[in-house]
Specification:
Number of helices: 8
Helix content: 55-70%
Distance between the termini: 16 Å
Number of domains: 1
Radius of gyration: 22 Å
Order of helices and strands: HHHHHHHH
Structural class: mainly alpha
Number of strands: 0
Shape: flat
Length: 187
């Protein structure tokens, strides 16, 4: 992390606050956020470690029986380690790579008919009570194409955000308040 030299600050008196409080605790907050969401995403995979076999094999990672549990372990335990700041760089790097692969997946395999089928649109057109007026305007005129673009864009933007956040943590390490720093050793 960078320091905030007094001569570069518009309000120089804030330098000690930035150095002692804002930067270290901001870094902890980022680690807790990224690690926490990895734990949340990884927990269902821990409960069913073979649930991703088909997905990882469709992505080209064989054998799926090996990579599916590895994905579960990396997300769940890697998230916990990022939160604690233990082996922060390798855990964040591994998860950043996984998140870049997730981004690639979203870009190369848009949701399309898997999310919104012509039959589903026909059902909604026949049963307008299931949609608000705004939902009818947004979803029905083009058969859901604009809605799918919105969902697809959110999936891609979320993947970019999480991959970049994990990569930044991998680059800078655990920070001042981390187990890595407490033991005096960083990867």
């Amino acid at each position: 992390m960078t320091s905030s030299p007094r001569e570069r600050l518009i309000i120089p008196i804030l330098a000690p606050f930035y150095h002692a409080v804002a930067q270290p605790f901001g870094w902890v907050a980022l680690r807790l956020l990224v690690g926490g969401f990895l734990v949340i995403e990884g927990w269902p995979k821990i409960l069913a470690p073979m649930s991703q076999v088909g997905f990882v094999e469709a992505m080209g990672f064989h054998p799926g029986w090996l990579f599916s549990p590895m994905l579960a372990l990396m997300q769940f335990f890697g998230g916990l380690m990022i939160m604690a700041g233990l082996l922060t760089r390798p855990m964040a790097l591994a998860n950043a790579v996984m998140l870049v692969i997730t981004l690639y997946y979203h870009v190369t395999r848009p949701f399309g008919d898997a999310l919104l089928t012509p039959e589903g649109i026909a059902f909604l057109q026949d049963n307008l009570q299931y949609l608000t007026q705004a939902g009818q305007r947004r979803l029905l005129p083009d058969g859901g194409a604009a809605f799918l673009e919105l969902v697809q864009g959110k999936a891609e933007y979320a993947s970019i955000f999480w991959a970049a956040s994990a990569a930044i943590i991998a680059a800078f390490g655990g920070g001042k308040y981390s187990v890595d720093r407490m033991i005096g050793r960083e990867f």
